[in-house]
Amino acid sequence: MNLKERFMNQLEGKTVDMTPVGCTTTYGMVDLMKKCGAERPLADTDAEAMTTLALAGELAGFEMVKAMGWDITPMSEAFGCGLGVPQIDLQYCIKVHPFAESLDGLDYPPDFLDRGRFPTYKKQFELLKKEVGDQKVIFGESEGAFTCAANLVGTENFMKWTFKRKKDVEKILDVTKQAMIDVINFAFENGADYYVMAEPTAGPALMSPRMFKKFVVPMLTDVVDRTNGPLVLHICGNTDMIIPLMCETGVKGLSIEEGANMKEAARIAHENGVRVFGNVATATTLFMGTPQEAYKESFAALENGTDFLCPGCGIAPGSPLENVLQLKKARDDYFK
Q1: How far is residue 29's CA from residue 53's CA, in Å, rounded to a whole number?
Q2: Percent of the chain topping pLDDT 70
Q3: Closest listed residue to residue 149, CA positions, set 133, 171, 132
Q4: Nearest alpha-carbon partner for 278 in 253, 250, 246, 295
Q5: Backbone phi, then psi, for 21, in 5-degree steps?
Q6: pLDDT averaged over the chain?
Q7: Are 56 and 34 in contact (CB under 8 A)?
């Protein structure tokens, strides 16, 4: 059983010899960049550098390979959001919300996949497939349709609109949902084995479970129904209240942070045929903690039933490689 077979069997709920380990969000770590020689911001825009950094995940013990860059802004960028200037330790972020004042002109452009960095991603998929073959899984990732919609008008505006301008929310989501479907299918057509939708804006810290059920569940369910491969849904924060709703969307996997109860999330997910990724803390343990703390937390995630031992969110650029290596060490020790 090679690494890809182990991963896909685990995702399907089949028997495997040990839990896969890796990162299913972003891992643009400075330590990895220095070791492989592919540094940001070049690794944000150049297919060869992007590929080199993606493959360098092996130096961190990762058994899955990320395509599509080191941030969750590509769809928003293609819709016209202005981005900040990236640095080696600073990823792209949204600075300009093009439809904050008016939705006039908002539509889904026919050349969407020719915009922004999508042509670069297409080249990167080609390079990764040549290097990885069928030995490891390759995954694509971007912001989800709900987070993209919030980026277009501003998160504070968008959350207010879920109460006061519901038709406008639905109008924006209709557009970003179609983009999401096409981007995911683009990734699968170019070699992705699974796709991660990052929806930080849809978490309980910003919206209630009732509003999540109203706006997010039907939208994501439609995305799942109209895409051509397994999807993983990542939501930040304490997602305990919405784990059943996340499963209801039909995704194959949930990626959760340390704020969520892994044991309970795994129980609910498994009852629904869904697998769980996580949930070693990124902002605290991996970034500021000790290797011993990272090892202990990784071991605990395994004991609590994670199906894929991963950081709970994107790894902070300044995180020490030694901390991140504890995930694989803990996994290997757990299964000895």
Answers
A1: 9
A2: 100
A3: 171
A4: 253
A5: -130, 145
A6: 97
A7: no
Whole-angstrom distance, CA of residue 256 vs CA of residue 278:
6
Residues 321/33, Cβ–Cβ less than 8 Å: no
User: Phi and psi dihedrals of 197, rounded to 5?
Assistant: -100, 115
CA distance 107 to 176: 9
Phi-psi region of 203 (alpha: psi -120 to 50; beta: other; left: phi over 0): beta
Q: How confident is the model at residue 163 (pLDDT cuts 50, 70, 90)?
A: very high
Mean pLDDT throughout 86-94?
A: 96
Paired tokens of 320: 């020490």
8 Å CB contact between 282 and 323? no
Full set of structural domains in the chain with CATH: 3-10+21-334 (3.20.20.210)
CA dihedral (74, 75, 81, 82) in degrees, to 10, reads 10
How far apart, in whole angstroms, are the C-alpha atoms of residue 227 and residue 243? 22
Let me know: does 257 contact 233? Beta carbons within 8 Å: no
User: Can you tell me whether residue 41 is helix, strand or coil?
Assistant: coil
Confidence (pLDDT) at 267: 98
pLDDT band at 247 (very low <50, low <70, confident <90, very high): very high
| Per-residue model confidence as pLDDT tens digits over 137-149 | 999 999 999 999 9
Q: What does the block give as tokens for 18?
A: 């040990």
Q: 142 pairs with which residues across the strands?
A: 197
Q: At what angle do helices 118-132 and 166-189 cross, to 10 degrees?
A: 40
Angstrom distance (rounded) from CA 41 to CA 211 = 37
Q: Supply the pLDDT for residue 248.
A: 98
User: How far is residue 15's CA from residue 5's CA, in Å, rounded to a whole number?
Assistant: 11
Nearest to 72 by CA among 281, 251, 236: 236
Angle at 142 between CA 150 and CA 190, to 5 degrees: 140
Considering the chain, what percentage of its residues have pLDDT values greater than 90? 100
Tell me how far apart the alpha carbons of residues 103 and 115 are, in angstroms, rounded to a whole number: 20
Q: What is the pTM of this model?
A: 0.97
